[in-house]
Amino acid sequence: MENSLEQKWKQREFTLASVSDLSSAPPSASLPGIARFDSDGLQIHHQSQQIPLSIDPRTVQLFKLSPVQSVCVVEGSDAGKKPLFSRAVSIQFRNEEESAAFHCVVQQWKKEVNAQGGNGRNGTVTTSKSKFDEKIESSSAKMYFHYYGQLLHQQNMLQDYVRTGTYHAAVIENRTDFAGRVVVDVGAGSGILSLFAAQAGAKHVYAVEASEMAEYARKLIAGNPTLAQRITVIKGKVEEVELPEKADILISEPMGTLLVNERMLESYVIARDRFLVPTGKMFPSLGRIHMAPFTDEYLFIEIANKALFWQQQNYYGVDLTPLHGTAFQGYFSQPVVDAFDPRLLIAPSIFHVIDFSKIKEEELYEIDIPLRFVASVGTRVHGLACWFDVLFNGSTVQRWLTTAPGSPTTHWYQLRCVLSQPIYVMAGQEITGRLHLIAHNAQSYTIYLTLSAKMWGPGAEQGGILQTSSCKLDLKEPYYRMSQPQAYALAQDQQPQLLIPTQDIHIQSQDLDEPEIVRQPSPNSSVQIDSLMQNI
């Protein structure tokens, strides 16, 4: 049986007892036919005529209805027409052996075609299900690529002059890294980074973009003819495309809110493993998530007051209070995205490093960060503030792109996880906890935060935890507050301290171990909240 089956694998043509196109209305009559594999794919014919169906074996799905009958479901197109649509064909074999052989050939064909891939000068795209498709929900991916396929959103990023200017400086100041080199732009968007790489003298740039923005990128690049001859735009995901050569440089802007939102860092790492030569460079090469506890009575009251609607006991005769608790927790499950005054931070920040050149893709599925701070002032801790920076580790210049509070505001702003139950601390008291990020298939993360206040003062080493507060947040569903930092007055008993640096500077590699931000005093707790209540 095995020898016979092996021979059937090599037999690229099968005689069918009957064939019926189930997609037609009504379904076509069942007639004898032939299934033939050739360089164009799988062709199924009636004895009298070919069924108007073009089948790609890599995307076909076979369902056995009986030992000798199957249904072939595939994305196909009518001859001479471009639109793709689902088709289904019922095929019946003369015996069970030929049915089993056909199924084996389809599987073997898929493996052969996927293994061969393509390596034309302009790159190709495989159509088998990629790793991206396996881990990301299709509806999320559709919305994601639709969003980034619109010029207005690309304009929003281009007009972030901190972002765009830092990328331009990092590339142009490191011409020696780009001159005469092959560059791959991962998630090229409008193609601006590809154009920067070409300006720096790149030998050739492959701009890989999966959304419809690829067409706009082609148009923009074509409008810059002196650079266009060295740039090729490839529409497809980096998990699927095939390139004709390896890259010396990867450039990308894969950062989302909290650095990891949208999970594009994983695609950046996959591109590294697929395309980058062992000695190649990545722009950027690493990122850091910075964290510090904060106090902000304004923000806490603003969020808590959103749930006041559900405290009504007579809303058109209906008592809404049974849902108040759920609504209250729901509002606190949203991370807050805005720009805040760095003086709200009540302890020196710490950071967690993600080295893009070394990390494995799977290590980005779950990120666990232990937290330990020492409070600078006595106050109420309302949660954890987070921001990020990335390093362009060029051979000539090292340049940071930072989203820190107090620095020029970017379109990423900063992010704060707000506790529904604040904790109280005194100056010198230790704050411990955990920030745990777990990736989900909507291209984001679930955030689990725990903060605890430990014993302080004489004998603290024998003490334990005094207070603990936890929250669960969805990074996919933030509260975009987008307010500019408010001016907070210092309490009379607080001494002014150094402010956060307000502009990017060149940082040497030995500075990587130093936190960027120096501790700031907390705001005056007696500041009136009238302005907040007007905005609620």
TrEMBL record:
Gene3D superfamilies: Hnrnp arginine n-methyltransferase1, Vaccinia Virus protein VP39
Enzymatic reactions: L-arginyl-[protein] + 2 S-adenosyl-L-methionine = N(omega),N(omega)-dimethyl-L-arginyl-[protein] + 2 S-adenosyl-L-homocysteine + 2 H(+)
Gene Ontology molecular function, alphabetical: histone H3R2 methyltransferase activity; protein heterodimerization activity; protein homodimerization activity; protein-arginine omega-N asymmetric methyltransferase activity; protein-arginine omega-N monomethyltransferase activity
Domain called Probable histone-arginine methyltransferase CARM1-like N-terminal PH: residue spans: 11-111
Record InterPro entries: Arg_MeTrfase (IPR025799), CARM1-like_PH (IPR057622), PRMT_dom (IPR055135), SAM-dependent_MTases_sf (IPR029063)
GO cellular component terms attached to this protein's record: cytoplasm; nucleus
Record domain Protein arginine N-methyltransferase: where: 289-441
Keywords: Chromatin regulator, Cytoplasm, Methyltransferase, Nucleus, S-adenosyl-L-methionine, Transcription, Transcription regulation, Transferase
Source organism, top-level taxon: Eukaryota
Cell compartment(s), UniProt: Cytoplasm; Nucleus
Gene Ontology terms describing biological process: methylation; regulation of flower development; vegetative to reproductive phase transition of meristem
Enzyme nomenclature, EC number: 2.1.1.319
A Pfam entry, by short name: PH_PRMT_N
Protein name stated in the entry: type I protein arginine methyltransferase
Organism: Phaseolus coccineus
